[in-house]
Amino acid sequence: MRPVPQTPYLTIDLGRVRTNFHTLRAALPDARIRYAVKANPAEPILRLLADEGAAFDVASIGEIDACASAGIEGHLLTFGNTIRKASELAQACARGVRRFTFDTEHAVTSIAEQACGSSVECRIAPAFPSSVTPFGHKFGCAPAEAAGLLTRARQLGLRPQGVCFHVGSQQLDPAAWELGIRCAAPVFDALGDLTTINVGGGFPIAYATGAPELGRVADSIRSALTHHFGANPPQLVVEPGRVIVGSAGTIGCEVVSVRTGTDGRRWVYLDIGRYGGLAETENEYIRYRLRTGRDGDPAEDAAIAGPTCDGDDVLYRRYPLPVTLRPGDRVEIDEAGAYTASYASVAFNGFPPLPTYFVNSAHTGGGPGREIVEPLAPGITRNWSLSEVICEAHTEFQDLVIGRTDQGVALFSDGERQSTAFSQLIYHEALLVPALLLADRIERVLVIGSGEGVISQLAVSAGAAHVDHVDIDREAVRLCAEYLPYGYTMDELRRAEKGLGPITVHYCDGWGFVDRSTASYDIVVIDPPDERREPAQHNRLYGAGFLERCRNIAGVVVAQAGCPTLWRNTSLQWSWQRFHETFQTVVYFGSDEHEWAFLSGLPAAVQDPIAAMSARLPTLTHRPRTIDAESLVASTVPPKSLRAHRLVPARQPPPAR
Ligand SMILES: Cc1ncc(COP(=O)(O)O)c(C=O)c1O
After folding, report:
1. Which numbered atom of ligand 1 lies nearest the CA of 168?
2. For residue range 489-535, what is the model confidence (pLDDT) as tens digits?
3. Structurally, what CATH architecture does the domain formed by 370-420 represent?
4. ω into 8 cis (within 30 of 0)
């Protein structure tokens, strides 16, 4: 099995880094791009950007060394941090760095002493509108001082190259760049031979609170250059960090604890906090978007805190989170590629720094990502792009992959998609809700297959006091509990494995379990992978002999019955035929938001089952989220061809009993 990282960890999609770089280059085609290494100094990012033709802005000897390790030469670097020791200037010079910024006369002198002949830029600090993470008065000189300092630099043997500024990181006001360019223009007039204007970083990205489009910032920069410099503007330089790597990163973490605090409010503790990489939540400056597998459940504000013993390790005082969130639940933090891994403390409270894993999304053309080619029907396949393989296992019964797709984390068995975070609820409700509506009682439920555990959970939510869940593949059920953001949590599964109720898991063959069963159930749910034309272990669970055995112990039997689309409906025709042979009443439910159809069978004849189901719908303890009165009626009409079809399909007879 491929090792799966423990949370918390950061995943960087290098394909997305490349796309972001291209997007910025397209928005400002005349600009020289210096990537601000501080945003994320990971070697694969530096190498990729170097290959794309970027230069680099470094803040320390450590960042110069990181660039050197990535094969980037000193002449591509600018030492942009104005706070540095003379000894560091000397070391930078020794490593081939020949461009520095400054904002004081002392710094000019120091550069001249340690790195004589270097190019220099003077950092100015107009009164920029406050950004989300502002620099305040820490850097830069008054614009009126810049010309004098640059002149002094020339006198000391340096090569004044231009003016730079930084509008503050995550700057939401595009006019800020116009102000910087306006204040820089007189310095160019005064010196006469400056060549570059460095408008810094600050380009915002859309966290939970949104941000202006990059195009608006680019327009502001371009029009300001034209307005203040006319037809011959200086060479434009940008120093982006966040906009290059921010959206390429996702932090995977986990809920450690949920409790009511002494303030009477709900507190949710994650295994990552302010010191584990989320430093930019200080003062709630950056409001990250958090995703959970329970999104869509009712949400209420909670305080979110990190795992350390520090009282400041609180991310947000109020943040809407699903009320159902529990310890062990996965949480994904989006747009987390910038200023996270590089901010993580080395060992505060003994927690290790945030590790980074790299993927390369195939859809951005970045390189080899994992593709799963899913067979749909003879001659038809569906391709899934996995940006991350979270878990891969060859169990005794199947090849299982859990991976990240554009539809969220998804489960594949032998190359077939079983469920995705995006659509799993539609599938599971379409399978179980019709049976809930047809059953006389909902106390005892038997689930065969359905390893994710969602059906068992729904049955409990519908009032079942006893759920037997039978699955032959122990390893697969455990991996699902561990890595899928829906279905059983590990804690829940452990309880179910011990039979602590209301769910009891039995790792054995469903056929044998039913054959031996002396108990009876209100509902039996059969949910294996789709029936195969070729021999497959699970095909037996579709056979008429098995259906009969289920009928003998159940009030209602419901089964995954195939797909109604014309190009894949063979297994549905088989199930349709067998259900009609086995049951007096058969109810079809075809999910038109998914691709599967389900059949429920009752041993006795029922006059108008759909009317009875409609009448019962409002009384269900489990309130379906994906089925209402209208869709219930619409979905219970089988395709016309199926209604006409009660003979054995010519292509292949149903498997023998
Ligand atoms: C000098 C300098 N340049 C560039 C950047 C990158 O800014 P951003 O990540 O907002 O693009 C920073 C960020 O602190 C900086 O200090």
Report:
1. 10
2. 888 999 999 999 999 999 999 999 999 999 999 999 999 988 887 77
3. Roll (2.30)
4. yes
